[in-house]
Structure formats: structure tokens, C-alpha cells
Amino acid sequence: MTWRPALAPSAMLRHDPVRQADLLIVPERIVVLNEEAAAIVALCDGTRTAEEIVAEFPGEVAGDVVEFLDRVRGEGWLR
User: Fold this and answer.
1) 28 CB contacts (<8 Å, ≥6 apart)?
2) Quick one: DSSP state of residue 61?
3) Sheet holding 21-26: strands in order across?
4) Per DSSP, which regions of 1-79 are E strands?
5) What is the CA radius of gyration of the chain?
6) 5 touches 13 (CB < 8 A)
7) How many Å apart are CA 51 and CA 11, to the nearest integer?
8) Which pTM was predicted?
9) What distances in angstroms separate CA 52 from CA 13, 44, 55, one per listed residue?
10) Backbone phi and psi for residue 5, each to the nearest 5 degrees, phi listed first
């Protein structure tokens, strides 16, 4: 089965207009995302495969996108 990343039920992606930053809000933690990380997480809606998400970014950063998805999944923020 192919993984279709989606935010975990306990996680929310929000934009903070004061900080001008996207935030990943998870239990007992708020993670300030840089522009690239926010773009990746925004694509994690459960409809795209991990491969389709990686394909949205230039080839030279594909490895970084895979690593980021794996790390965020490991934290339990993606299902």
C-alpha cells in the first residue's frame, strides 16, 4: 500500500499573522515551519501519495522532502 500522508487528528496547520509564519500545532507543542516545510505539510491532505508530494518540488531537494516527511511521520504529526 502506498502512503498518503495526512495530518494526524491531533495536529493542525495554522497561519500566524503576527509572526507571519505557518505553525504546526500538536499536543503540548507549537512548531514554527519555514516556507518549504509549510508547503510540504500543506500538501499532506491524504489525497496525494508521498511520491506525488515529492514530485511537486525540484529534483535537487527531493531527498530533503522525503527526509522531512519521514521525520514528521516519526514524530506522529502525520498519519
Assistant:
1) none
2) G
3) 12-16, 21-26, 29-33
4) 12-16, 21-26, 29-33
5) 12
6) no
7) 22
8) 0.92
9) 20, 10, 5
10) -60, 140
